[in-house]
Write a structure and sequence with these properties.
Length: 398
């Protein structure tokens, strides 16, 4: 059907062949979530930064693969993708341009079908109270299950049946709607970590004594906003009965206050968090999920095709940190969010025409702490970079 997708997930382990600096916190994060640095340095696919060295179009490298993605002229979907785009351009394409205008001009030509950011979509389209990756994914999954139960238009994901001889290259995650440790009625439940609840990140990491359970976080958010709606409805009804003249003034004042707090185009903000999002939310240069297993209700297991030569043993932390952070699984969540938003936006209209795939999110990148996105467009005052022009000639030479 029109809302059914066949999904294949790939996880490639790469190795930069030039000197680079690592941050201890980032390395610790990756180790805590099962990343194998021994495998990276012994089997990682080599790559170099900057411009091509020789005729790399004929070699089987990551650069050749990236060029194939450009040739495909498909939409590129990321989550909070500015840093990702900088990385992809610099490591697999060419030297970074000197100006932002040139960079966005190059990107608009590299991906003519558009670049989409699911963090932007989660905040400004679905208006979730939090927009970090796993929160947005699980929120979409819950809403999709409600649509499925009501026999409405809903999203369905299918996976390939891989042959037995490929089993050593594939990792699986058990899928369900909610985590097994998620107990709504539990009397001795661990309190939610407020910082993680708001931002999907906690400085204490695996040592945090509070819960990082996304299902519990979403439950609490839903209860909070439901109570808030009921209180607002009761207040309006009472004021309409008692003081009809003053209501309009107070209601107007309340709306102005809400706009000032949330921004006219922005999403609802977390009300329980003790610090402002713009001041404390990390730019998500480091991964923005804590790596709990993905939860799918429409299938038993979710496969990820890996470049591993043997199946890795997974490491599990405390209950609040279970699972493994992997780029492939993050990619799945990103794709799921975008497919869900696309289904909601298009509704019953199947005639998409020749315009952009999702106009309201087309070429808009989320900027942390900003109420406006970065537009990926070629300005009349900006030219494409020389390196980019050469790469485009190489891409279409055949």
């Amino acid at each position: 059907s029109e809302n059914t997708y066949l999904c294949q997930i790939y996880n490639l382990t790469l190795l930069c062949m030039e000197d680079y600096i690592v941050e201890p916190q980032s390395v610790q994060f990756l180790v805590q979530h099962g990343f194998d640095f021994n495998k990276q340095y012994s089997q990682g696919i080599p790559y170099h930064k900057g411009n091509d060295k020789g005729n790399e179009n004929q070699s089987q490298s990551v650069r050749t693969f990236f060029l194939e993605l450009i040739r495909a002229k498909k939409p590129l979907i990321l989550h909070n993708g500015l840093i990702d785009l900088v990385f992809l351009y610099q490591c697999f394409y060419a030297h970074l341009p000197d100006s932002l205008g040139t960079f966005t001009a190059d990107l608009s030509e590299m991906f003519p079908a558009g670049i989409y950011d699911t963090k932007y979509a989660s905040e400004f389209e679905t208006r979730f109270v939090a927009s970090y990756l796993e929160y947005a994914y699980k929120k979409c999954k819950r809403e999709n299950c409600k649509l499925k139960d009501s026999i409405g238009q809903h999203l369905t994901i299918e996976f390939c049946n891989y042959p037995a001889n490929m089993s050593c290259y594939i990792d699986y995650r058990h899928c369900s709607l909610q985590e097994e440790s998620h107990d709504v009625g539990g009397g001795n439940k661990v309190p939610v970590c407020e910082k993680f609840s708001a931002y999907g990140w906690c400085p204490k990491g695996v040592k945090c004594p509070q819960s990082h359970n996304i299902d519990l976080i979403i439950d609490e958010d839903d209860k909070f906003w439901e109570k808030r709606k009921k209180r607002k409805h009761k207040w309006k009804r009472r004021k309409n009965t008692e003081e009809p003249t003053k209501v309009s003034e107070q209601e107007s004042s309340g709306k102005e206050m809400e706009l000032a707090q949330n921004g006219e185009e922005g999403p609802p903000r977390k009300q329980s968090c003790y610090e402002p999002a713009a001041a404390t939310e990390p730019a998500e240069i480091t991964p923005d999920t804590e790596g709990r297993p993905l939860k799918e209700n429409s299938m038993d297991m979710e496969p990820e095709v890996s470049s591993d030569t043997k199946k890795e043993k997974e490491t599990h932390g405390p209950p609040s940190q279970g699972g493994t952070h992997r780029a492939g699984f993050d990619a799945f969540m990103t794709g799921y969010i975008m497919a869900y938003v696309w289904m909601l936006k298009k509704g019953k209209n199947t005639d998409t025409g020749a315009g952009p795939w999702l106009p309201d999110c087309h070429n808009k990148l989320y900027l942390s702490g900003k109420s406006v996105p970065l537009q990926i467009v070629k300005s009349l005052f900006s030219k494409s970079s020389k390196a980019h022009s050469q790469k485009m000639k190489l891409a279409w030479a055949s």
